[in-house]
Write a structure and sequence with these properties.
Helices cover about 35% and strands about 10% of the residues. With about 500 residues, it is of the alpha/beta class. The strands form 3 sheets. Strands 1-3-2-6-8-7 form a 6-stranded mixed beta sheet, with helices on both faces. The chain has a 3-stranded parallel beta sheet with strand order 10-9-11, covered by helices on one side. Helix 6 runs parallel beside helix 7. The radius of gyration is 26 Å and the shape is globular.
């Protein structure tokens, strides 16, 4: 495939160059790698409002650019950002959580080391949602990451820092990770290309795990051609074989994935499907019944969370334990979910995954006939925050709820498998977390004040980078403080006073 003309690259500002344009110009010695990274460092100063990086060592960046001049490789001198849950020698791998804030790994992850050996320059560690387990990148430790098209919007997650850096032209490409949409969603939010390879194509060594069965590294770039070049340079299996589009059957599940599609995105998807159809692809309507409920039960974290974290700790030499990492998570809601995964509490995840595989396979041969699905929405709906999932919800006539009542004191729907039966006055003592003070209502006012101060600082925002498509984003809003009644003491306290049996003081 012919590359871009190096002379045409001179007409562009260096921060506007794509991966292919930059590598062709570097190979032709149109400019040096050191001049390239200096231009990007100068450009990123106006984008500090995005909070895209957690760490950056400017001296190490310039030294790596000088070393790249003596390396003969297709991507020598190319600057990239690396998500902060991937090991890079000389940088801390924080995963956006307090327990790992000062953890410097022994060596780089194999994928990163392969890129460094080919002359790639690591510009810094990109921010993320804490433990790569969320979709807003509202990180309590490092702060909120923002969308370059509108700083009042989130960039998606969990690889929001990588996507924001590419979309703002701070780097031509960035490494991220994907477990349940953490590359694909930020790419959609920020209007760039996100590539989530087949699980196992890239080594997972040196990656802080979330779900060892589904974790994978992947790329952000500005075009599919850029992603193709990067994948060919870092995948141990080499370049992916070409796929013939003529005769390929592509499933289009509109019933769920297209139900809440943004009006501005629908024409873009329809135009792309039309181009594929013109190229010989056969489009097949392939709706999957009940897939929304199943996806809502999967969640991002795996069942063997402790095993994955302990393996990473042993390989990277971290001076903490899996329990230290989980119990030190700053986000209270995420910490509770991770503690449940660490304890191995029962859930419907296994049944949901088995049912989902059964639905995807369908009748005999259907999976072979429909190897691909074109999806307009990347993540399933989530249940309301603060409520525990129960089969059947609050419906007393639901079969699952009738089974719970018939089972007596054993409740298969409870989170711990045991609940007192009706009339049973024996109760388990409440378990109190030592860090429960972080959940007090008074802290919410502090978060609201901090969010208001951040919004005030954003009143003077830098100009937005043009181009890149129509991003999809969610507006950032401060957490409202808990409302307190102004009517005085609660009814319960009043009843306690009225029902008191203490004798009244004698009248004088």
């Amino acid at each position: 495939m012919a590359g871009p003309d190096p002379a045409a690259a001179l007409a562009k500002a260096l921060h506007e160059l794509s991966v292919r344009e930059a590598t062709q110009a570097l190979a032709a010695k149109t400019f040096t790698a050191e001049a390239y990274v200096d231009a990007l460092l100068d450009w990123q100063r106006r984008w500090q409002v995005l909070n895209a990086y957690t760490q950056q060592d400017v001296d190490a960046v310039r030294a790596a650019a000088r070393r790249a001049a003596s390396i003969a490789a297709p991507i020598a001198g190319l600057p990239i950002a690396v998500k902060d849950n991937i090991d890079v020698a000389g940088y801390a791998t924080t995963a956006g959580t307090p327990a790992l804030r000062h953890h410097v790994p022994r060596s780089s992850a194999p994928v990163v080391q392969s890129l460094i050996d080919q002359g790639v320059v690591v510009m810094g560690k990109a921010g993320l949602h804490e433990m790569a387990a969320g979709g807003t990148c509202g990180n309590i430790l490092f702060g909120q990451i923002r969308n370059p098209y509108d700083p009042a919007m989130v960039p998606g997650g969990s690889s929001g820092g990588s996507a924001a850096a590419v979309a703002a032209r701070m780097v031509p490409a960035a490494l991220g990770t994907d477990t349940a949409g953490s590359i694909r969603a930020p790419a959609a939010y920020c209007g760039c290309v996100g590539f989530k390879p087949t699980t196992g194509r890239y080594s997972r060594v040196g990656l802080v795990p979330g779900d060892v069965r589904r974790d994978t590294l992947g790329w952000f770039a500005r075009s599919c051609a850029d992603v193709e070049l990067l994948d060919a340079c870092c995948a141990p299996a080499g370049p992916a074989p070409p796929v013939a589009l003529k005769g390929l059957r592509l499933g289009v599940p509109r019933a769920y994935f297209y139900a809440a599609l943004e009006p501005a995105v629908a024409p873009v998807i329809d135009a792309m499907l039309a181009r594929l159809q013109d190229a010989g692809v056969e489009l097949v309507e392939a709706d999957i019944p009940g897939i929304g409920d199943l996806l809502a039960q999967l969640g991002p974290m795996g069942r063997d969370l402790a095993g994955g974290l302990n393996l990473y700790i042993a390989e990277s030499g971290a001076a903490v334990s899996a329990e230290d990492i989980v119990h030190g998570i700053a986000d209270p809601q995420l910490r509770r979910g991770m503690e449940a995964g660490l304890a191995g509490r029962p859930s419907g995840r296994g049944r949901a995954e088995g049912r989902l595989r059964h639905l995807l396979r369908g009748p005999s041969g259907r999976r072979r006939d429909l190897p691909h699905l074109a999806r307009g929405r990347l993540s399933g709906s989530r249940r309301p925050r603060g409520r525990r999932h129960r089969p059947g919800g609050d419906d007393p006539q639901h079969p699952a709820r009738r089974a719970c009542r018939a089972a007596g004191p054993v409740d298969p729907c409870g989170p711990h498998g045991r609940r007192p039966a009706r009339g049973d006055r024996t109760r388990r003592p409440a378990r109190r977390r030592p860090d429960a003070a972080e959940d007090r209502p008074g802290d919410r006012g502090d978060h609201a004040a901090a969010a208001a101060a951040t919004a005030a600082r954003l009143a003077v925002a830098p100009p937005i980078v043009a181009g890149g498509g129509a991003p999809i984003a969610v507006r950032i809003s401060p957490t409202p403080p808990r409302r307190r009644s102004a009517a005085g003491p609660s009814r319960r306290r009043c009843r306690r006073r009225r029902g008191s049996r203490l004798p009244r003081p004698p009248r004088r």
